[in-house]
Amino acid sequence: MSSSGLQPLQNAFSGFTRLSKGIAVLLAVGFLVVTVLPWALEYVALVPGKSIPMAWNLLTAGYIEKSLLSAIVNVLAVLFIGKTLEPIWGSKEFLKFIVLVNLFTGASTFATMIFLYFCTMNEDFLYPKISGFHGVVAGFLVAIKQLMPDQEITAFFVFKFRAKHVPSLFVLVSVVLSLLAGDAVQLLPFILFGTYGSWLYLRFFQTRSESNLRGDPSDEFGFDTFFPEVVRPAIRPVTTILSKIFCGRRSAEGEEGTGHILGGKPLPGSDPAEATRRRERGARALEERLAAAAQNATGAADGGASSLPVSSKPPGMGKEKAPADESV
Q1: Alpha helix (H) residue ranges in 160-271
Q2: What is the rounded distance in angstroms from the CA atom of residue 203 to the CA atom of residue 186?
Q3: Which of 42, 151, 177, 265 has the most other CB atoms within 10 Å of its CB?
């Protein structure tokens, strides 16, 4: 194969950020440690019955892979998704997202296992060794849904999906695999809480450095959008209750998309128009990165490939819309 034929493959496996490579190394080291020293899994995986006093396993469990396949998949996920998200968010916010989603996932899984134990008195809920980075990977997919919902993604060179549907498909496939394997405890809690925890953070709490605004109240990022349209009317009342529990009161106007309120005052960054502008700025930043990657890839040749593992630019987010965005 000629060097020009290898160029797209070389580009795909280059450009990884320093932080994503560091997280990948951490996952690889964690896998090697528990492979060489299996007894260490008792101390670094999440074992709900031992989390008191070993509370550190709420944090460490997310970075420990028990199988080679899951280690490879999650290492590739953090490398490829990291070089999309980190340039848009910045390294500090990217690391903050990973830490918070991982902590939320671990703590929520612990609470759920303890609750199930007291409901059933089944000790199987107390002593499973739960671990893996798949909760954070599920959170990454939610972030992709937020930033570039109409981006077309090709899986296995055959299946094409909009980015906004990928988190729901990931959860659905995980549920099916867990039921077939008969061991839902090892997989589902991290994926479900990783998905919800990342949405909760991005929806209500994330502060964008370029605007110093918080959250994303747009209708396109509502929790009901993770479900098929036929069941969304039934989901909306439930998600409204969850929003009130976790994030304070929302005004009647807020329910129609004008913003969140807490204590009678709008939360910073709750303006839907500003949320839309932030999403468009993120899409433009992605386009600039795609163009820069294409220039580096082509050199003297024409029409090089982008380093991102996606098949096209987000529809409706082209550069021709930039003047309209600035005038809003």
Answers
A1: 166-181, 184-204, 232-247, 252-255
A2: 27
A3: 151
CA separation for the pair 33, 302 (Å, rounded): 46
Q: Is the dihedral of CA 286, 288, 291, 292 positive or negative?
A: negative
Which of 21-25, 52-56, 59-63, 288-292 shows the lowest per-residue confidence on average (mean pLDDT)? 288-292
C-beta contacts of 89-92 below 8 A and 24+ residues apart: 90/209, 91/17, 91/18, 91/19
Kindly state the tokens that stand for 276: 């839309």
DSSP assignment, residue 257?
Answer: T
Could you read off the pLDDT of 217-244 as tens digits, one per residue?
A: 888 888 888 888 888 888 888 777 766 6
3-state secondary structure of 208: strand
The CATH code of domain 17-227 reads 1.20.1540.10
Q: Where are the domains of the chain?
A: 17-227
pTM score = 0.73
